[in-house]
Design a protein that fits this description.
Blueprint lengths: L3 H14 L3 H17 L3 E8 L18 E8 L6 H15 L7 H6 L9 E5 L5 H10 L15 E6 L5 E6 L6 H18 L29 H11 L4 E5 L2 E4 H17 L7 E5 L4 H12 L3 E4 L6 H11 L3 E4 L1 H6 L7 E3 L15 H4 L8 E7 L9 E6 L6
Parallel strand pairs: 1-3, 3-4, 8-9, 8-10, 10-11
Antiparallel strand pairs: 1-2, 4-5, 6-7, 12-13
């Protein structure tokens, strides 16, 4: 709980800057999240009343109109705190005509699977004087309520003579020590702003030097292994979107397994190279993961390069097979190489289950090729130079 003196200083500062008290609370939360995440582009959720004053009599209509919408704030280190507050308020006001949109509708048109994981709630519907009068009239000695959300962190602010600030959290998703640190930072920022709004955002303690991300051990798995794990854990979730096409983890994993079996039948395997001559597409992603799943290294070919150069790269790298569309394969016919043409393959007839050890040949985990890059140089004459990366685990 903020002291009455601090609460009043913050209100006075907000009035002096020409903004609402809520703009101060929103901006302070954005700064804290920026420090915690090390980012300047911050998104958190906020609840809105859903009762626009432009609608006559809306305040007298019974029912639940509350809605939750995302709030996006960009932190600019050189901007003054006062300007941040004004911009926060003006950007929020510009979006209020759209507060009727449900969060599900916003989520569907977003490119992000999760818009935010911190919710901000301003409980400004509580009038301390009215509550005190009601309690006195009915001899109510006290009351309490229980209210939780599914978000990892929920920030609840209750205005009053003394402003109440509460950080609720789910311990299985975020640690208590981190939430305590966030609350402490939030109160520290408010304390600083209560006396001075002229300083730069980058001058706020911790804002210029965000906390480093905690060290996490790298999993003992390849990228292909991690993808297979994800497909097993969340099979129905969206893994890939290309144009109007949406592919789930289960569908993509099945396609990768089919393609991997076709590659194995065409000589792919550890210490072998598979050339990929595919345009940006779902098939390109499938082929890339399939190559890694067989233990091979992939050689990506830039399709905007001259065909003669690509043929030379193929003859030099000597891949086990080439994966291409029929159109591209025709331009590379001069290369003496086995070719898999993706738009003529009968992939549905190939088994889609996980590859067995017998199929993979039990390739060992010692360092092996992951990819091969052929590049040209503007300062060195001659054919493209090659570079091959080897790693026992490509997840890093």
């Amino acid at each position: 709980m903020l002291s009455e003196e601090l609460s009043e200083r913050l209100r006075a500062g907000a009035r002096g800057a020409g903004v609402t008290f809520n703009a101060v609370l929103n901006a302070a939360l954005a700064v804290v999240l920026g420090i915690e995440t090390g980012r300047q582009d911050i998104v958190f959720g906020t609840t809105v009343a859903g009762r626009p004053p432009e609608v006559p009599g809306i305040d007298a209509v019974a029912g639940m109109f509350l809605n939750t919408v995302p709030v996006r704030t960009t932190l600019r280190p050189d901007e003054s705190v006062a300007d941040l507050l004004r911009r926060t308020q003006s950007e929020r006001l510009a979006l209020t005509p759209h507060d009727y949109l449900g969060l599900a509708s916003i989520q569907r048109v977003s490119a992000h699977r999760q818009l935010f994981d911190v919710l901000y709630v301003l409980q400004n519907f509580v009038d301390e004087k009215q509550v005190s009068a009601l309690n006195a009239a009915h001899d109510i000695s006290g009351g309490d309520s229980i209210d939780h959300t599914h978000y990892p962190v929920t920030v609840v602010v209750t205005p009053g003579a003394s402003v109440k600030v509460k950080f609720e959290f789910h311990p299985e998703q975020v640690s208590e020590s981190r939430v305590e640190r966030m609350l402490s930072r939030y109160l520290t920022v408010l304390e600083q702003w209560s006396t001075d709004l002229s300083g730069a955002v980058g001058g706020i303690a911790g804002a210029a030097a965000p906390l480093p991300a905690p060290a996490r051990p790298l999993p003992d798995a390849t990228i292909a292994d991690l993808f297979a794990d994800a497909a097993r854990i969340r099979p129905e979730e969206t893994a890939l979107v290309f144009g109007d096409r949406t592919v789930s983890y289960a569908e993509l994993d099945a396609d990768v397994n089919r393609m991997a079996r076709l590659l194995l039948a065409h000589g792919a395997g550890p210490e072998r190279i598979v050339a990929l001559a595919l345009p940006r597409s779902v098939e390109m992603v499938v082929a890339l993961f399939a190559v890694l799943r067989t233990g091979s290294a992939y050689l990506p070919l830039e399709l905007d390069h001259p065909a003669e150069r690509l043929v030379g790269m193929l003859n030099d790298a000597r891949p086990a097979t080439l994966v291409a569309t029929s159109e591209v394969a025709g331009t590379l016919a001069a290369a003496t190489i086995d070719t898999l043409v993706v738009d003529t393959l009968d992939v549905e007839s190939v088994a889609s289950g996980p590859l067995s050890e017998a199929e993979l040949g039990g390739f060992a985990p010692e360092p092996r090729g992951a990819w091969t890059i052929r590049r040209t140089s503007s300062t060195r004459p001659g054919p493209p130079a090659g570079r091959r990366a080897s790693s026992p685990r490509t997840a890093a």
